[in-house]
Design a protein that fits this description.
- By secondary structure, the protein is mostly helical.
- Helices cover 75% and strands 4% of the residues.
- Strands 1-2 form a two-stranded antiparallel ribbon.
- It is globular.
Length: 204
């Protein structure tokens, strides 16, 4: 496994005086493609997204962002679930359509998000050398909430991604992941595009 993944952690180029790995570079490319495909409701976002999270998981692990690294494992599961939902999650196992998040769904999402943030903050503070336990935990929770909404084609999932990206951008810059920080600036722009597109779809 080390022989297989080792080259992905080699430096592809230097950005801001900091080496940028092939995993981060490939994560950059597949990440942009994934979000662009989600905004267009293209089901190929799911398999490409799985490849993306594996690459970024390696990047985050080496940067000491342990909650984000572990989150990528959950993303693989959610990616497979989202792939199935988009294909068969509609009425009568038809293609899923864009919809809005209901009040009850918002309620348990917020409770789950607060609980996960608190638990991860404590765990990262006590059991890892993370320098940013709360922010790592918060972005993890927001990302999980947003990904769930994305698997169900909820319009509001884009707002959750926007909130997460606003925190991710300076967080990754602080951890010297400059290319990933730039990637999340682009994600932010694509999220706004996706929000507008899904609003039009739900109103149609």
């Amino acid at each position: 496994m080390t022989d297989l993944l080792g080259p992905l952690l080699d430096s592809a180029f230097t950005l801001g005086g900091v080496p940028t790995s092939w995993a981060e570079l490939l994560g950059f490319a597949t990440g942009l493609l994934t979000v662009w495909l989600v905004a267009r409701q293209n089901i190929w976002n799911w398999p490409i997204g799985v490849a993306n999270v594996v690459l970024l998981g390696l990047v985050f692990l080496t940067a000491g962002l342990y909650a984000d690294a572990a989150l990528q494992i959950v993303y693989v599961v959610l990616g497979l679930y989202g792939w199935w939902q988009w294909s068969y999650g509609g009425a009568g196992r038809t293609v899923l359509r864009v919809s809005r998040t209901g009040p009850a769904e918002w309620g348990w999402l917020i409770l789950a998000g607060v609980a996960v943030t608190a638990l991860l903050t404590v765990a990262l503070s006590n059991h890892t050398d993370s320098a940013v336990p709360f922010w790592d935990a918060l972005t993890t929770s927001l990302s999980l909430m947003a990904t769930y909404g994305q698997t169900r084609k909820r319009v509001e999932s884009w707002w959750l991604w926007i909130a997460a990206d606003v925190v991710y951008i300076p967080l990754y810059a602080y951890k010297n992941l400059y290319l990933t920080s730039v990637l999340y600036v682009m994600f932010l722009a694509l999220c706004v595009m996706g929000l507008r597109a899904w609003r039009r779809a739900v109103a149609a």
